From TrEMBL:
Residues 2-228 form the ABC transporter domain. This is ABC transporter ATP-binding protein. One of its GO terms (biological process) is L-amino acid transport. Coiled coil: none annotated. The keyword Nucleotide-binding applies. GO terms for molecular function: ATP binding; ATP hydrolysis activity; branched-chain amino acid transmembrane transporter activity.
Length: 228
C-alpha cells in the first residue's frame, strides 16, 4: 500500500534522511521507532509531502506521490495524527471532527462510539480537553477523513497510563477491522503487541527491521538502538 524507497530529506542544508526505505502492506501495522532526532517525524513529513524528499520515491496504492501538494496526498487516503495533536483549539469537538472530514464509512456516530468521551464533550472547545482527550479527538479527526492508511506520530506521548491503554486498545480494534497503520511511539511493548513489523531509524537511516518480539528479546540491541 505504502512504498517508501531510498528517500533523502533536508532541512535547508542539513540532511535528515539518508535513503530511508520502508513499506506498509494492506491491513498491516508498521511501527517506526528510534531515539529522539533520528528522523521519524521527517519520514512522516516526507511521505505526506510536507518536507518533500530530495531523492528517492514514495508510492501510495501504486501511485507516485512526488510533486503532489500535501492536501492532495492526504486526499488519496492518508490520515495523519500529528505530533502534539494539533487539534483546532477554538473549534468545538464536533467542529474538529467534521473540519477535515471526507465521505466514507467513518461518521461522527462511529467515532464517538469508539471514543464515548468525545460525545460527552461534543460542544466544548477543543482547548478545554485534557491531553488524552485531545489525542482521541486527533485520532477521531483523522478517521473522519476516511483514510486507507492511518499515520500516528507519537501515538501516546505524554499521556496518562489509562489513556495510553485505551488508545492502544482502539488501535488494535482498528487494525483488526483491516485499517493499515503506520505508528511512531516509544512504548516498544505496546508497539510489539500491535505492529506486524518494526523499522528502527538511527541518524536518518534504517538501522534495524524485523518483528518487534525479536527486538524485545535482544536486550543489548534494544539498548543500543533505542536506549531502553
Ligand atoms: P523526535 O522523537 O525528537 O520527534 P524524530 O526521530 O522524529 O525525533 P526528526 O524530528 O525527524 O526526528 O528529526 C530528524 C533530524 O532533523 C534531527 O537532527 C533534527 O534536529 C532535524 N530537524 C527536524 N526538524 C527540523 C527543522 N525544522 N529544521 C532543521 N532541522 C530539523
Amino acid at each position: 500500500m505504502l512504498e517508501v524507497s531510498g528517500i533523502a530529506a533536508f532541512y535547508g542544508a542539513a540532511q535528515a534522511l539518508f535513503g530511508v526505505s520502508l513499506c506498509v502492506r494492506e491491513g498491516e501495522a508498521l511501527a517506526l521507532l528510534g531515539r529522539n532526532g533520528m528522523g521519524k517525524t521527517t519520514t512522516i513529513r516526507a511521505i505526506l509531502g510536507l518536507t518533500p524528499p530530495a531523492s528517492g520515491s514514495v508510492r501510495f496504492a501504486g501511485r507516485p506521490l512526488s510533486g503532489l501538494a500535501p492536501h492532495r496526498i492526504a486526499r488519496l487516503g492518508l490520515g495523519l495524527v500529528p505530533e502534539g495533536r494539533q487539534v483546532f483549539p477554538t473549534l468545538t469537538v464536533a467542529e474538529n471532527l467534521v473540519a477535515t472530514a471526507r465521505p466514507g464509512p467513518w461518521t461522527v456516530a462511529r467515532v464517538t462510539a469508539l471514543f464515548p468521551r468525545l460525545a460527552e464533550r461534543a460542544r466544548q472547545p477543543a482547548r478545554t480537553l485534557s491531553g488524552g482527550e485531545q489525542q482521541m479527538l486527533a485520532i477521531g479527526r483523522a478517521l473522519m477523513t476516511n483514510p486507507r492508511l492511518l499515520i500516528l506520530d507519537e501515538a501516546t506521548e505524554g499521556l496518562a497510563p489509562l489513556i495510553r491503554a485505551e488508545i492502544w486498545a482502539v488501535l488494535g480494534r482498528l487494525k483488526a477491522e483491516g485499517l493499515s497503520i503506520l505508528v511512531v511511539d516509544k512504548d516498544v511493548r505496546a508497539l510489539s503487541a500491535l505492529a506486524d513489523r518494526f523499522v528502527v531509524l538511527e541518524k536518518g537511516r534504517v538501522a534495524w527491521e524485523g518483528q518487534g518480539a525479536s527486538l524485545l528479546a535482544d536486550t543489548p540491541r534494544l539498548h543500543a538502538l533505542l536506549g531502553v
